[in-house]
């Protein structure tokens, strides 16, 4: 609070705090990468979404959005309802929630960061893209065997530096606000402000090898290279 002022219709910061404000955005992005969008967190999210989708026809969950008086009641208790209800119609959903409880999660196969030059024209990767890249006839993958998470992480303004939209002031005696070009502050700031990470999961442990291979084929077909940092760990494949 001591380093900011309201000037006109916006909050401005002291110019000497430029790097501290930048670090605020960078820390947020780092939290998304290491916590909120962690591969295991996303695996649980994908499984819960699948469980809700499978239960929707029976529980009519999506119909709640049409009635605000009912929608506000929709919370985590729907998970407990799925877990405890004996109805056969909820069996698949119940099994998925049980897998989450037992940490028998969708198996994370691998990931890659979309090359910077391909970000502008990037389209979300789908399970169909992965399945259609399969070459090994030993195992026939289906779309329902694969889950894909397209994770976008940025500093709140896409590919732009968020501080471009923030004004600064010299000191508390000054009434002038102004932007600061990043090259006036440091040449160590990143050249890019956005990551797009594509992660692929196998819903069945025994298909990790096949899904991983198809994922690599997709990268070769799309970019001409394997964009992932390394292959799927052998112990992960053997464990399945």
Automatic annotation (TrEMBL):
Parts forming coiled coils: none
Domain of life: Eukaryota
Listed GO CC annotations: nucleus
InterPro entries per the UniProt record, alphabetical: dGTPase-like
Gene Ontology BP annotations: dGTP catabolic process
GO MF entries: dGTPase activity
Keywords assigned: Hydrolase
Name of protein: Deoxynucleoside triphosphate triphosphohydrolase SAMHD1 homolog isoform X1
């Amino acid at each position: 609070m001591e380093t900011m002022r309201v000037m006109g219709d916006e909050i401005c910061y002291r110019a000497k705090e430029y790097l501290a404000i930048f670090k605020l955005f960078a820390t947020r992005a780092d939290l998304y990468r290491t916590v909120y969008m962690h591969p295991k967190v996303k695996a649980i999210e994908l499984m819960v979404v699948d469980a809700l989708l499978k239960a929707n026809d029976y529980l009519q969950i999506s119909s709640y959005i049409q009635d605000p008086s009912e929608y506000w009641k929709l919370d985590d208790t729907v998970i407990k309802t799925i877990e405890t209800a004996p109805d056969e119609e909820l069996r698949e959903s119940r099994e998925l929630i049980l897998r989450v409880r037992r940490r028998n999660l969708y198996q994370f196969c691998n990931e890659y960061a979309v090359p910077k030059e391909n970000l502008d024209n990037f389209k979300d990767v789908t399970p169909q893209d992965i399945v259609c890249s399969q070459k090994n006839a030993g195992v026939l993958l289906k779309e329902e065997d694969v889950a894909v998470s397209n994770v976008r992480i940025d500093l709140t303004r896409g590919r732009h530096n968020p501080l471009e939209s923030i004004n600064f002031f010299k000191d508390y005696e000054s009434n002038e606000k102004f932007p600061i070009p990043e090259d006036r502050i440091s040449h160590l700031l990143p050249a890019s402000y956005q990551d797009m990470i594509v992660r692929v999961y196998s819903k069945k442990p025994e298909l990790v090898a096949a899904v991983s291979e198809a994922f690599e084929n997709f990268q070769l077909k799309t970019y001409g290279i394997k964009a992932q940092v390394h292959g799927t760990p052998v112990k992960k494949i053997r464990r399945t």
